[in-house]
Write a sequence for this structure.
């Protein structure tokens, strides 16, 4: 708490004392910090998502900023340790706290904040919730920084000598999902359209997510950075368990609805065959099932 007050009073000195976040250069000039596998209210919950940065000849693009201003500052320190080039873009793959609450740490760089066209409204709708539920991770509402650059379908960003291709998706994991492709090294950064190891958390549309998986499966990157879990070199293999899990939920819920079962029965039963396949399964499965039930009950 003392540190939080000190940070609020003297942002600069607080930023200077942040220890750099550990990052790995997974492809030339692409640095990834792999988040921990923790539940959303555990100590360290502000460092559970994969976040990182891409270095061009002219400037740096950050991809997701972590679950607190503190984590964002630690990522900024990592960038400083690797390059003196300026940060020109901060890209958010979707609205979830573990990917966006570090944005304020990059305000002084005056980058373009880039997200899908749905991200801005989604952040505005969540602003109050974020401040009330994550008081240790953001100090003020003003520290919740939404995008000023919206991507409706696709967009290219030039970092000097390398180009990022952004692609926004219809409602899937959330309503604001966007992927980043680093073409010169063949690296796809999926955000939470891909979970590896950690149980997928649905906050959008199961049918939309399965459609997004079909779209991703048409691409053939050499490197895949998921939203959670280790970097992969085999996108098809990485997508398979997630597709199986979501199909299990859709098929299971359809059967419960056809049998006239209420939502409580569905959340108790559906998906249990997947339990051994996923980390933190019990923290998300019942909620996922309830969303799938609401999505499918009128189809
Ligand atoms: Zn997410």
């Amino acid at each position: 708490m003392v540190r939080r007050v000190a940070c609020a009073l003297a942002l600069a000195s607080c930023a200077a004392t942040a220890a750099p976040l550990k990052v790995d250069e997974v492809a030339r000039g692409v640095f990834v910090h792999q988040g921990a596998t923790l539940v959303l209210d555990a100590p360290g919950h502000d460092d559970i998502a994969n976040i990182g940065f891409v270095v061009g000849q002219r400037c740096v693009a950050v991809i997701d900023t972590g679950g607190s201003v503190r984590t964002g500052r630690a990522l900024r320190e990592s960038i400083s340790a690797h390059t003196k080039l300026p940060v020109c873009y901060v890209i958010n793959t979707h609205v979830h706290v573990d990917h966006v609450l570090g944005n304020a740490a990059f305000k002084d760089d005056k980058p373009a904040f880039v997200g899908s066209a749905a991200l801005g409204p989604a952040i505005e709708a969540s602003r109050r919730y974020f401040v009330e539920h994550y008081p240790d991770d953001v100090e003020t509402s003003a520290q919740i920084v939404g995008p000023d650059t919206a991507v409706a379908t696709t967009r290219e960003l030039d970092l000097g000598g390398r180009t990022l291709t952004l692609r926004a998706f219809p409602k899937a994991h959330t309503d604001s999902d966007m992927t980043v492709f680093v073409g010169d090294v063949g690296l796809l950064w999926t955000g939470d359209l891909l979970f590896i190891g950690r149980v997928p958390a649905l906050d959008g549309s199961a049918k939309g997510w399965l459609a997004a998986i079909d779209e991703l499966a048409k691409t053939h990157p050499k490197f895949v950075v998921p939203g959670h879990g280790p970097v992969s070199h085999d996108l098809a293999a990485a997508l398979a368990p997630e597709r199986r899990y979501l199909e299990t939920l859709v098929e299971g819920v359809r059967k419960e609805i056809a049998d006239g079962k209420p939502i409580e029965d569905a959340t108790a039963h559906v998906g249990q065959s997947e339990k051994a396949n996923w980390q933190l399964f019990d923290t998300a499965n019942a909620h996922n099932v309830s969303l799938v039930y609401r999505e499918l009950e009128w189809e």
Observations:
- Confidence is low (pLDDT under 50) at residues 1-16.
- The CA atoms of residues 199 and 296 lie 21 Å apart.
- The longest strand covers residues 187-195.
- The longest helix spans residues 235-258.
